[in-house]
Design goal:
- The chain is mostly beta strands.
- The protein contains no helices and eleven strands.
- Strands 2, 4, 5, 6, 9, 10 and 11 form a seven-stranded mixed sheet that branches. A four-stranded antiparallel sheet has the order 1-3-8-7, with no helix packed on it.
- The N and C termini lie far apart (41 Å).
């Protein structure tokens, strides 16, 4: 079994910053792509940013230049630094990882975190 545990959400004023963290734990053999998604009320879940094991990143157009994704492969942890937050960034943010377990090292699973709420409000 494996799980993703997120932290770092909260309430912030427009223009402020937050840093989200997500750690993968369990009997993990390998973690490939990790990423952050978000879902605002009444909207579908959307990709915010993703990062490969080698550090290649991609971002949604709406967050480019404001958000930065990074990871620590030794800790199986991914981060999302969010700057210049806007009202439209309010959402539940979900961590995601493609990973395999020790018992089945070639079988990759898509694992989701429980979500952390980010509220941008004055």
């Amino acid at each position: 079994q494996a799980q993703l545990v997120e932290s770092g959400g909260g309430l912030v004023q427009p223009g402020g910053s937050l840093r989200l963290s997500c750690a993968a734990s369990g009997s993990i053999f390998r973690v490939n792509v990790m990423g952050w998604y978000r879902q605002a009320p009444g909207k579908v879940r959307e990709l915010v940013a993703g990062i490969t094991t080698s550090g290649t990143t991609n971002y949604a157009d709406s967050v480019k230049g404001r958000f930065t994704i990074s990871r620590d492969n030794a800790k199986n942890t991914v981060y999302l630094q969010m700057n210049s937050l806007q009202l439209e960034d309010t959402a539940v943010y979900y961590c995601h990882a493609d990973l395999s377990l020790v018992v089945h090292p070639l079988n990759f699973l898509k694992v989701w975190g429980q979500g952390t709420l980010v509220t941008v409000s004055s």
